[in-house]
Amino acid sequence: MRHTKSAPRRRRGLLALGAVITLAGSAIVGVPAYAVTTGNGSLVYAPPDGSSFNDEGGDATGTAYAKIVALKHSGSANGTLIVTFDDGRLIKDVSPSTNPTTDTQACLANPSLACHQEWPIFRSTDNGTSWTKISAVNPGLQFPGIPGQEDTTQLDRLAQPFLYELPQATGGLAAGTLLLTGQIRPADRDDPASITKLVVYKSTNQGASWSYLSTIDTGGPAVYDPSSTSTTTTVWEPTLIVDGNGGLTAYFSDERQKANNVLQAVSYRRSTDGGLTWGALSNVSAPTDKLHRPGMITVTKLPDSTYLATYEVVNAAGYAFSNASPVFFKKSPDGLNWGTTTSLGTPVELADGRGIGSSPTVTWVPTGGPKGMVVVASKWGLDAAGNLNSGQNFFVNYNLGVGPWERLPFAVTFNGQSSITGFAQGIDYSPDGRTLYQATNVDNYRTGYLYNDIRVGTVPLNATAYEAENAARVNASLVTHGDASNGSKVGNINFSDSTVTFSVKVPTAGTYTMNVRYANGTSGTSSHSVSVNGGTASSISYPKTADWGRYLWAQKSVSLNAGTNTIRFAYSGTFAELDQIQIFPSSTTPAPEFRIVNRNSGKLLEIFSAATTDGAPAGQWGPTGNPTQVWQVTPATSGTFQLVNKNSGKLLEIPSASTADGTDAAQWGPTGHATQRWNLTPNSSGYWAITNANSGKYLEIDGCSTADGAVAQQWGPTSGLCQQWRLVKEGIQ
Question: In this structure, which topology does domain 593-728 adopt according to CATH?
Fold first, then answer.
């Protein structure tokens, strides 16, 4: 982990524990989730000028390690958002009986002052629009402030917070209990006698107050040295999850295994008594080459009850940038057994080899695909050679982490290659599954310093995306850009006749929200003229972005007809580039749309000739951009799915409910019969078997042909690659 391109220093924020301040305690109520995406998200906290410091030298960076939880197991409080972060302020204690005051400069100038840090707790009950500080975990004069357990050293510096809501009871902790874990240490990190502790706090009232629970582990001084000659023994970056056997497992980075040639491991300890005591040390990944340095692990549970862990790998071999810190992942059947521990796992990469690096966070989201999707946020992007290449997208996977990943645009963007912005982000989803929340620290230059504010943005998971490069263009240009969704955007919309026209299809007439991802590198607000179905044009505004490679979102309501609509963007005197639009209703979740790609041929499942008639045959063809090659994957009964052609609105079926090998697939209006339902089963290679619910037979391409026009049919299992399919979402229209 590091926070600049040139200097691999680790900003490990500071803090201590003990007392708790409750700032607000009003009743919490659940709220519906709906996207708040514009304005680069909402502001949670902005550090006052002069209030933050960096104990490693350089600019005061303000904040890092933003973490967010959307409550889902807390009854009437479900939907409430809770955020914490690493706050770079030092706070001066006025007296033990009064609230402290912020006076970083006084604390730095006079080491004898009683000063500490805190983990602030912020809450939103309006889906992230506004935020209130409700409490803080604060240091006592000694850690942990419990009689008989005092430490002789004041541990008044905190770092690396992590929030977790228990989804089920474990030990003596009830479902809905909030846990906060992080690292604490003394102010003098360079003292050879210094220590690091990984501690846990709990809250049983949705974050309004906190109490100390336990210490997970203890290590040496908080010194970051990733070199092969390092002798450091620090423990860093704890995270939590309930494992497959119902215990509470704490994962963290461990530098104490150097006697085994392990520069750093990602490890865990497990508790069976609700986090009061912790068991033996075990490893997830611990390469014994004194080179690779996995760290910053987070873990998520998948819908098949398996687990997936992501972590960065400092010093990773084979990357053009020496400090690329690419993101790797491993899977486990129970969160405890991770295969060969000396293995690094598998890099998180797109099909073209692009990856992400530094301080990843992972979660599984129940919407987005037949098995939901795995979502990873990281600080920066990497090109296929391993060079730093910005980074403004989640990486998502629809096959439980197996096979190539795709991009999903961030709600909140930042300069990923500058200072500590975007570091160790937090992500979570709403109880209804329609909103993805992103909490991160964002660059904000003030008074000669780079301060990082905490902001929260939302991504609508009930949206259908339309790529600008697939829209009809007049006097405008395709622009390749690694951070653009699908790798391209449309620019040079600079002339009186320049237009970009999207073809949008919706199931019912009504008012829809349209999000527009754009770049505006001018010095002021730009705009386009927008018309729907050739009607009266209105304006959409684009506040300036940091440069032409940085993206933000604009938003507009549009009235659409049932079926196909056109939305035209036209030049109106100022300049902006278009990457993608999203169309979504306020209260429903449309079926996710995919291209279905045959593994053997690489060609797309379609209804031939874009026919809309019952009985029209299905087969394969190279990409045409026509919606006849797009399929809505709609949940049906007993875990099965319907495959609905976007062009015709009709269902893929095996005609006459045949069970015979070789029966050709076709489309038909809904009949309710099992022959129009399909089982989608992911395999270990990142592909899906698609089997008919009536016959039990596999969808394949006749004769395993690679030719355009080859028909799709059903057949018993053959192990042929033509019976395997990939679901591809990014880049469709």
Answer: Trefoil (Acidic Fibroblast Growth Factor, subunit A) (2.80.10)
